[in-house]
């Protein structure tokens, strides 16, 4: 074996080990965070947490039932806004548009992504709250939905574009229209990546506090329908974390854990329910 | 696809239909400082009056004032009274005056983290002003060491911690410093957010507490309750009568009592550096902001009912949570003022 | 990059098949129109946002003009405002965050996509995605309780004692500061890089790898020189996502950066960012000029994002040699 080959082999092993270390570090950080949350908030995650309304300080018990439901409602409505725009917009960019329109839309999406969450909140406030003169779940969902668009759009475009030309041409050769090709061949092939991106976008907005402060506001009670202010896990975490009470601090950590749990469940449900019938073999 | 569509509709329907509650929801926004006592009050009141829900969110005094002016909430709460400009703006936008109702009293204390010092340091107004102006830079400066004979102060740099966010606490603190230091008044002045000459910024009372706890040789200012709950040392401040007073419920009430006699009709008053031998010099009322004219009679009556309760039974809940009660004279005056609400 | 539209061959002479084909095309036209509307709505929303920022900062723009960019004062009492320290802080923290997160993230995604067995890769990815769901407030708290003391007691002495004469390692350190904020941001943006890059790497056709290996390259060489360039745009896209997230992050940064409008070359200096100062002061700001100056800051950030994105895109174009572009379309 020549010296050069030995070096190349060594380099290969070295670099690949390095990537393993990178992965390890990233995952280790996550487990550390999870562990910290469990350690600090685990004791507060009990049945009462999931079923009771918040209690004022000094009283034992109390929970965040309304915040859990509130977060779920917000995420649902936000997805209804953000996912279609991102998904169909991404289809347009990948399948129909010309180069200039594509760059403009992409640029706009990147810009939107970089807007601080508080500014999105302020924008949603002036668009949805001020005209109706009250805070509402819809306003919060509007703000969060906006934040979901860029990730969904860019990723949809990216993964659709990665589908090999052959697949498209094959379908068209069989007489399928462009739209049919997209829906029955291209999207299923890119499905995994797109779903990952949507779930990532959802995860991101699930933990956002600032956009909700002036849109969904907050609510110590159950929020009725979609037009009233609503409690949400991130805002509760924020309110409790900045209080001087040890018990509320623990509840804040617990809420963080529950939020992660919520996202985990959504992830699992989404992947299992939506994956049936779609074969997307890894290349 | 069909499966997901059905799932979606089911969840949407679930979200839309709600357990039938005929409760009247009244929203309020404002200061973070009184959040614990307000949440207690509103909870107790709701137990007594199941059909009235007061939903109070602590988004900050300034935000409370703004949301009131915009008409998105029914009442507000603030640690610093509205100024004339804000009152005019409210009148212009909402077509009604706005009333201030003091609820409880709070104190702002200087808290610090100095090695070897676990008790209360005696701090003079000049020392505090000098530290926060950045002119007194070492802990063993004579201005600090003088009134603290017997305490070993290190020759270390002082790390100043202030608030990064706009806050009523900052308003009270800078109000006090403006009163006792002309230099502070001209250089920095009083506001919920100022251009601090020196120091790090912490977000919220909790942020300042956290920074002070973690940073050796630091000093910051927080609401009394944060210092008490976090068990960090805080100093005694020299009041206008020359006594070093540590903040507690008694000394805060003493400060309020002094102010009660000269309470203006609109209750907008500053009680920092109040007269009185035992008065703690850095205290403040905190107010509820109620519009004079209400469109909705149900809300108006609910709020009036709550105010009456707050001034009588409600005051009893203050002290266990480390808030000082209102002086009797102020309570009487407020009861009369409730009638102004139409 | 839109796919080239392979047009269907024109219908034959039979009128029946022509109308059938034109119906097909109409369906496509509707699809094109609808998806076009969705795509342009994104642009419209962004324009609307900028418009709102623009008119709500009118007072500040009139008063300060371009000086806003270079003034260092931020005084709500005197009503004098300048954006420079915040621009600096934003750039500083985002750069640190990317410098940490990009190598780590790409390395991890390579490992997950190329080396790890499928099940392990999927499971680990699942967990890394959870990192994205951690609320920013919690990141802030973790920053305060863990990273800040770590910085003050471990990292600062380790770097300052031997290298303290360098401006970037100068003390003193209070724990909070640019470096701390950068680290917290890095942790926050890593999931985006890993998640998207891994998916893109996985979507690279197998034959590319196999061709490289067949030609005698080592595992690393085939990955680095063939697979990664193939996935380049996707990976760059993920970095854009990460950059945008870092620029706009509000809560977590504000809890660990020290909130002092300072410009300093030192990593350990406290500072402030645009997003952080807006979040801190917007809710309490009273007074039109104050409020509008904060909105003006938002506009500045927008401009910053605009420029940075443009520069990054330029970089990609310049470093992609003509002819070396790998296409599958």
Descriptive account of the structure:
Chain A has 283 residues and is mainly alpha-helical. Chain A has two domains: 3-44; 47-276, MetI-like (MetI-like fold), CATH 1.10.3720.10. Chain A is 76% helix and 0% strand. Mean pLDDT of chain A is 87; it is low at 277-283. Chain B has 342 residues and is an alpha/beta fold. Chain B has helices at residues 2-16, 35-48, 61-70, 84-94, 125-133, 142-145, 168-180, 182-187, 204-214, 224-230, 249-260, 297-311, 328-337; strands at 24-30, 52-58, 75-78, 98-113, 122-123, 159-163, 200-202, 218-223, 236-238, 244-245, 283-291. In chain B, the strands form two sheets. Chain B has an eight-stranded mixed β-sheet with strand order 2-1-3-11-4-8-6-7. In chain B, strands 5-9-10 form a three-stranded mixed β-sheet. In chain B, helix 2 links the parallel strand 1 and strand 2 (52-58). Chain B is globular. Chain B starts with a helix and ends in a 5-residue tail after the last helix. The model of chain B has no long low-confidence stretch (mean pLDDT 88). Chain C is mainly alpha-helical and 329 residues long. Chain C has two domains: 14-55; 68-327, MetI-like (MetI-like fold). Chain C has twelve helices and two strands. Chain C has helices at residues 15-55, 58-64, 84-115, 118-133, 136-163, 178-202, 206-214, 219-230, 232-248, 251-256, 274-282, 288-319, and strands at residues 74-75, 80-81. A two-stranded antiparallel ribbon of chain C has the order 1-2. In chain C, helix 4 packs antiparallel against helix 6, helix 9 (232-248) packs antiparallel against helix 12 and helix 11 runs antiparallel to helix 12. The longest helix of chain C has 41 residues, at 15-55. Chain C is globular, with a radius of gyration of 25 Å. The model of chain C is unreliable at 1-5 and 10-16 (pLDDT under 50). The chains are: A mainly alpha (283), B alpha/beta (342), C mainly alpha (329). Chains in contact: A-B, A-C, B-C. At the A-C interface, helix 1, helix 3, helix 4, helix 5 and helix 6 of A face helix 1, helix 3, helix 4, helix 5 and helix 6 of C.
């Amino acid at each position: 074996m020549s010296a050069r080959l030995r070096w190349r082999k060594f380099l290969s092993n070295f670099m690949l080990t390095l990537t393993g270390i990178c992965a390890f570090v990233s995952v280790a950080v996550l487990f550390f965070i999870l562990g910290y949350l469990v350690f600090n908030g685990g004791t507060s995650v009990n049945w009462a947490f999931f079923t009771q309304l918040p209690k004022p300080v000094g009283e034992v018990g109390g929970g965040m039932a309304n915040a859990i439901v509130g977060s779920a409602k917000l995420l649902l409505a936000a997805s209804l806004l953000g996912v279609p725009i991102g998904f169909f917009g991404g289809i347009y960019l990948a399948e129909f548009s010309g180069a200039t329109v594509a760059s403009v839309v992409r640029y706009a999406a990147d810009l939107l992504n970089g807007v601080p969450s508080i500014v999105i909140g302020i924008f949603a406030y002036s668009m949805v709250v001020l005209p109706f003169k009250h805070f509402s779940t819809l306003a919060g969902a509007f703000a969060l939905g906006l934040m979901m668009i860029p990730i969904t759009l860019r990723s949809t475009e990216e993964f659709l574009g990665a589908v090999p030309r052959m697949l498209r041409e094959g379908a068209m050769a069989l007489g399928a229209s462009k739209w049919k090709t997209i829906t029955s061949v291209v999207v299923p092939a890119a499905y995994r990546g797109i779903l990952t991106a949507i779930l990532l976008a959802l995860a991101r907005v699930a933990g956002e506090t600032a956009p909700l402060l002036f849109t969904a506001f907050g609510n110590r009670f159950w929020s009725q329908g979609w037009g009233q202010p609503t409690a949400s896990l991130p805002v509760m975490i924020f309110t409790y974390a900045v209080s001087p009470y040890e018990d509320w601090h623990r509840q804040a950590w617990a809420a963080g854990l529950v939020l992660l749990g919520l996202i985990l469940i959504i992830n699992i449900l989404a992947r299992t329910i939506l994956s049936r019938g779609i074969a997307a073999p890894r290349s | 696809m069909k499966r997901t569509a059905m799932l979606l509709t089911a969840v949407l329907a679930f979200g839309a239909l709600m357990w039938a509650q005929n409760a009247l929801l009244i929203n309020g926004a404002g200061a973070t400082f009184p959040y614990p006592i307000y949440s207690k009050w509103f909870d107790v009141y709701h137990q007594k009056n199941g059909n009235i829900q007061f939903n109070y969110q602590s988004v900050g005094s300034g935000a409370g004032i703004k949301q009131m002016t915009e008409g998105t909430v029914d009442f507000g709460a603030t640690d610093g009274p509205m100024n004339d400009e804000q009152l005019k703006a409210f009148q212009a936008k909402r077509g009604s005056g706005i009333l201030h109702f003091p609820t409880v009293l709070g104190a702002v204390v200087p808290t610090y983290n100095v090695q070897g010092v676990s008790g209360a340091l005696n701090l003079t107004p000049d020392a505090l002003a000098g530290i926060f102006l950045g002119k007194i830079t070492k802990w063993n400066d004579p201005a600090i060491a003088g009134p603290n004979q017997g305490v070993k102060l290190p020759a270390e740099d002082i790390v100043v911690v202030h608030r990064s966010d706009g806050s009523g606490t900052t308003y009270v603190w800078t109000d006090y410093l403006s009163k006792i230091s002309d230099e502070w008044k001209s250089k920095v002045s009083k506001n919920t957010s100022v251009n601090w000459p020196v120091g790090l910024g912490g977000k919220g009372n909790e942020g300042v507490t956290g920074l002070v706890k973690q940073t050796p040789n630091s000093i910051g200012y927080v609401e009394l309750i944060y210092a008490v709950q976090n068990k960090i040392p805080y100093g005694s401040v020299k009041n206008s009568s020359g006594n070093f007073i540590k903040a507690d419920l008694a000394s805060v009430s003493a400060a309020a009592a002094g102010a009660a006699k000269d309470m203006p009709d609109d209750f907008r008053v500053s009680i920092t550096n109040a007269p009185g031998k035992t008065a703690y010099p850095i205290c403040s009322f905190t107010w509820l902001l109620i519009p004079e004219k209400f469109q909705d009679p149900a809300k108006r009556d609910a709020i009036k009912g709550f105010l009456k309760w707050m001034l009588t039974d409600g005051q009893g809940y203050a002290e266990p949570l480390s808030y000082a009660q209102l002086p009797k004279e102020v309570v009487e005056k407020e009861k009369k003022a409730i009638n102004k609400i139409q | 990059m839109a796919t080239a539209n392979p047009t269907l061959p024109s219908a034959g002479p039979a009128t029946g098949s022509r109308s059938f084909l034109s119906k097909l095309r109409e369906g496509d036209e509707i699809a094109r129109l609808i998806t076009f509307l969705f795509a342009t709505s994104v642009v419209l929303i962004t324009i609307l946002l900028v418009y709102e920022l623009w008119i709500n900062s009118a007072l500040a723009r009139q008063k300060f003009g371009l000086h806003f960019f270079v003034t260092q004062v931020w005084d709500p009492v005197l009503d004098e405002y300048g954006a420079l320290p915040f621009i600096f802080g934003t750039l500083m923290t985002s750069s640190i965050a990317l410098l940490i997160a990009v190598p780590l993230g790409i390395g991890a995604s390579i490992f997950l996509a190329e080396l790890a067995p499928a099940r392990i890769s999927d499971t680990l990815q699942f967990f890394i995605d959870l990192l994205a769901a951690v609320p920013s407030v919690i990141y802030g708290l973790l920053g305060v309780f863990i990273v800040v003391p770590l910085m003050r007691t471990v990292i600062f002495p380790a770097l300052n004692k031997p290298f303290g004469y360098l401006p970037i390692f100068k003390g003193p350190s209070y724990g909070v500061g640019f470096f701390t904020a950068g680290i917290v941001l890095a942790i926050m943006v890593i999931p985006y890089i890993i998640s998207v890059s891994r998916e893109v790497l996985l979507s690279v056709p197998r034959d590319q790898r196999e061709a490289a290996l067949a030609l005698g390259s080592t595992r690393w060489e085939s990955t680095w020189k063939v697979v990664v360039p193939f996935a380049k745009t996707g990976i760059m896209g993920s970095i854009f996502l990460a950059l945008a997230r870092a620029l706009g992050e509000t809560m977590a940064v504000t809890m660990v950066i020290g909130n002092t409008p300072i410009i300093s070359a030192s990593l350990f200096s406290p500072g402030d960012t645009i997003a952080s100062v807006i979040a801190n002061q917007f809710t309490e700001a009273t007074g039109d000029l104050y409020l509008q100056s904060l909105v003006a800051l938002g506009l500045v950030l927008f401009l910053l994002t605009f420029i940075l994105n443009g520069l990054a895109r330029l970089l990609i174009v310049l470093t992609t040699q003509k002819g070396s572009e790998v296409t599958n379309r």
